[in-house]
Amino acid sequence: MVAAAGPGGEVRVAPRATVQSLGRALRLLQHFSASTPEWSVGELAAATGLPKGTVSKILATFQEHGYLLQDPVTRRYRLGPAFLVAGRIAESGLDIARLALPLLQRVTAASGETSVLMLRAGWRSVCAAKVDSPHPVRMAAEVGRFASLHSGASNKPILAYLPEEDIDAYLRSPYFVRRGPRTITDRQHLLANLAEIRRRGYAESDSEVEVDIQAFGAAVFDALGYVTGAISIVGPRQRLAQRPVDEMVSAVQAAARELSQLLGWRGPWPAPWPPTPPGRQIQAASARTP
Prior knowledge:
elongated, alpha+beta, about 290 residues, 2 domains
């Protein structure tokens, strides 16, 4: 705040300039808590005194950017995965990034190219960790940078292993647009490509995000077998084309498999698709318990 002297010599504190619309949006978020994790548009409108139309638009904006999720049946909102990413970054780095760093160093040592860990953040992915190539000409990845789930082998393994309803929702979202010269923007073509990624256990791309940049990526799964991110090799096509594809694929798959195990996944890698809902996993585990 800025301090200024009043007419009688007293000190007055001038309030800082703020954005009222952003303040209203943040006040809505403050209603989400451990005791009240889900809210409907009507309930938030009643609690805040804001018009339903305003509340609906604010919530839809947060949902679009991954900060809120909406139950397709109840239409109620809850906090989304983007807050998890932001919170962990605020705590001086993601635990998963620290776990992944030695694996990325191994991938870069084996390939000579930049290796990247992308994590899902709502309808996008975010670069959580990277190890740069030692070559002077290289793909420069930036930690904290967001990307589209349907563009490039660093991101498509995440989209490929999402539940089917989430894939469908993504393809109807504003994020499904062209990001580079060879980004796949045809729905059926992309669905076929995602099926191929699941069949082979890795993604491959060329100039989908940037011209002449090639990548190989594989999915990372959490303890429940849900996709949480992807590890990839990214570099200039002219250099990667001189390396055996099997060599690149083996490096990213080994790293993705090991990171999944470090996160608690004990099943086959890649994890089965479509993923089993957590409730059914608990029921299945209970049924196996004597």
